[in-house]
Amino acid sequence: MAGVSINPLAREPITQPLDVGVRAINALLPIGRGQRVGLFAGSGVGKSTLLGMMTRYTDADVIVVGLIGERGREVRDFVETTLGEEGLRRAVVVASPSDRPPLARLHGAYRATAIAEWFRDQGLNVLLLMDSLTRLRPGAARDRLVGR
């Protein structure tokens, strides 16, 4: 489930752009196929909305969405409203909501990554999105409460 590490010298160079379906990102901050990108911002600024737009409008063959530590109603809203029937046709959603133990959320993130790697190994262009990595790390909520 942890995957096999690829030798950095054997990696293909990133030469093709990935159309994420958001014109502002495509124009100002282009993302290449095979590139890793992190989106970090405070709460309530639209990260989930942006991920939803990328899920609906990207030209990737398959989208794997890891909803890690989200509330159950947020998972349902993302699947029903943000993705909808059209988005679900080419998306795989791995949900490990906030009521699950930290280790289960960690496994959810690994599972989403393993699924994305499997599709990649089949020769498909895959977009892996995870919301939210800040809720992934065990003890993160406690650290926020005590000011760490």
From TrEMBL:
Annotated organism of origin: Panagrolaimus superbus
SUPFAM superfamilies assigned to the protein according to its UniProt record, in alphabetical order: P-loop containing nucleoside triphosphate hydrolases
Domain ATPase F1/V1/A1 complex alpha/beta subunit nucleotide-binding: 21-136
Record's keyword annotation contains ATP-binding: yes
Pfam families noted in UniProt: ATP-synt_ab (PF00006)
Family named by the database record: Belongs to the ATPase alpha/beta chains family.
Upper classification of the organism: Eukaryota, Metazoa, Ecdysozoa, Nematoda, Chromadorea
Keywords: ATP synthesis, ATP-binding, Hydrogen ion transport, Ion transport, Nucleotide-binding, Translocase, Transport
Domain of life: Eukaryota
Recorded GO MF terms: ATP binding; proton-transporting ATP synthase activity, rotational mechanism
Protein name: ATPase F1/V1/A1 complex alpha/beta subunit nucleotide-binding domain-containing protein
